[in-house]
């Protein structure tokens, strides 16, 4: 007489180990597929919000005071600095380093620096909020890119993270 083959239940240790190894390899390979600029994009969005807020504040200040506000981009010790000053005032310009305001991930503030290129590097917001000429800046932060444009007639500020 032949006995019926027994159906085994569960998995062998070898099958469990092979499955664990394959899942581990799949997880590690996914790390290489995730965009490396994820943190850079988040930090650049933070930079763009701060930059747009500073420029909107300068434009609104020109509208409220009826005086021209001078805006200038310059490099200082490797940093991009935004300077905002009242043209008719003897007070020193307010200076803002263009960088993220918070730590993101394990990277401390200031490790990656925002690079701003484009023209003009200096312009004025007039009493009605006009920028005088078209402003077109490109911002690079690590692997992430953005553009910022200011319409010369309306003074409208448009920033886009690419």
Write the layout of secondary structure elements.
Layout: H1 13-33, H2 38-65, E1 69-76, E2 79-86, E3 94-97, E4 115-119, E5 122-125, E6 135-141, E7 144-150, E8 157-161
Antiparallel strand pairs: 1-2, 1-5, 2-3, 4-6, 6-7, 7-8
Please name the defining characteristics of this protein.
162 residues; alpha+beta; four-stranded antiparallel beta sheet; 2 helices
| Strand percentage | 25-35%
Helix-strand sequence: HHEEEEEEEE
Strand tally, please? 8
Number of helices: 2
Rg estimate, integer Å = 27 Å
Strand order of the biggest β-sheet: 3-2-1-5
The amount of helix comes to: 25-40%
Low-confidence stretches: 102-107
Shape verdict: rod-shaped
N→C terminal distance: 75 Å
Mean pLDDT metric: 82
Q: Provide the structure class.
A: alpha+beta
The largest pleated sheet is described as:
4 strands, antiparallel
Q: What can you tell me about this protein's structure?
A:
It is a single chain. With 162 residues, this protein is of the alpha+beta class. Helix content is 30%, strand content 30%. The protein contains two helices and eight strands. The strands form two sheets. It has a four-stranded antiparallel beta sheet with strand order 3-2-1-5. Strand 6 (135-141) and strand 7 form a beta hairpin. The chain starts with 12 loop residues before the first helix and ends with a strand. Mean pLDDT is 82; it is low at 102-107.
């Amino acid at each position: 007489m032949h006995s019926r083959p027994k159906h085994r239940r569960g998995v062998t240790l070898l099958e469990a180990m092979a499955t664990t190894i394959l899942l581990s390899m799949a997880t590690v390979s996914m790390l290489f597929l995730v965009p490396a600029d994820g943190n850079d994009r988040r930090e650049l969005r933070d930079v763009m919000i701060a930059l747009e807020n500073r420029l909107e504040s300068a434009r609104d200040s020109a509208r409220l005071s009826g005086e021209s506000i001078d805006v200038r981009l310059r490099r200082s010790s490797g940093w991009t600095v935004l300077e905002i000053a009242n043209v008719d005032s003897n007070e020193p310009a307010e200076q803002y380093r263009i960088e993220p305001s918070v730590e993101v991930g394990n990277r401390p503030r200031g490790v990656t620096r925002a690079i701003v290129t484009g023209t003009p590097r200096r312009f004025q917001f007039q009493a009605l909020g006009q920028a005088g000429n078209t402003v077109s800046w490109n911002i690079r932060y690590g692997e992430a890119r953005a553009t910022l444009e200011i319409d010369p007639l309306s003074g409208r500020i448009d920033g886009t993270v690419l």
